[in-house]
């Protein structure tokens, strides 16, 4: 049986997710929601088969879909996910899922009242085999001295910002900015590998509109610190590293996970990664489908993913507040 998939948001990331979902053979795309009929119809031309296009969210959610992939601006995730859960539709919501723990709490309460519905945050990198390889290696290391994760890419939307426009992804109004966008990847990696930090600090470089264009986070753990460097206003080619004593895991890119090496500090360097998949969303799409189709390999997978997502949300919010960055939903 395939899952009947509906999508919200018609940008390139949705196309990539649908291609990943179809590649797993566990989904069929049946419904597209867009604010405009023309954009919705245009999106369907990327795919074979018949898809209904909806411009009314409730009609879309009532159209018989099993699961919705939400890739709208962050500030819309909460109300769209809430409406989907109320309609009995499973949710895959793009990162960052929700603005703050208050929103998460409301979603969580609603899920408790609708126990057949599941919600996932699409943090694609942690579902990749290369992330699991890193996790296994970290667990084998005798000692952790610290880590530095870097993800900094100049965004074409930064050109728009410089031209005086208001791109959603660099705007507090849409619950966006460097931390909520690219910063989520290194933060997810840190919390998945090392758990919740004892304390956290965010040194943000703010744009004229009050959103963060780039920044540095320090996560303090009892015996080490983890530094996260990310942004949308410059390109960085720095590696990410996890430090043991002599030994080091060296990662080309903490969000893309193209190549991972283990350097034992005694002259031996081994590539421990596998070739990265062409579409980085296939493994998450497979994970979500397996859970929705009750093909669980480990009974706690879903609960663990949910708890991790909530922890990331909590730390993300603390970091944002520590830098004085407010979103409209914080009021
Ligand atoms: N996992 C990844 O690798 C990855 C990569 C990129 C983005 N993302 C995530 O995907 C989500 C979307 O990001 P994006 O950069 O694609 O956002 P975006 O371009 O600002 O908007 C995405 C879609 O939402 C709709 N939309 C745009 N502005 C809107 C508005 N003012 N009100 C209502 N709907 C609006 C549009 O669809 P219609 O015009 O058809 O309604 C648009 O295609 C974010 O949560 C982001 O973090 C994830």
UniProtKB/TrEMBL annotation:
Domain (Gfo/Idh/MocA-like oxidoreductase N-terminal) ranges: 4-115
Record field: transmembrane: none
Gene3D superfamilies, alphabetized: Dihydrodipicolinate Reductase, domain 2, NAD(P)-binding Rossmann-like Domain
Record GO terms (molecular function): nucleotide binding
Pfam families: GFO_IDH_MocA
InterPro entries for this protein: Gfo/Idh/MocA-like_OxRdtase_N, NAD(P)-bd_dom_sf
Domain of life according to the entry: Bacteria
Protein name: Gfo/Idh/MocA family oxidoreductase
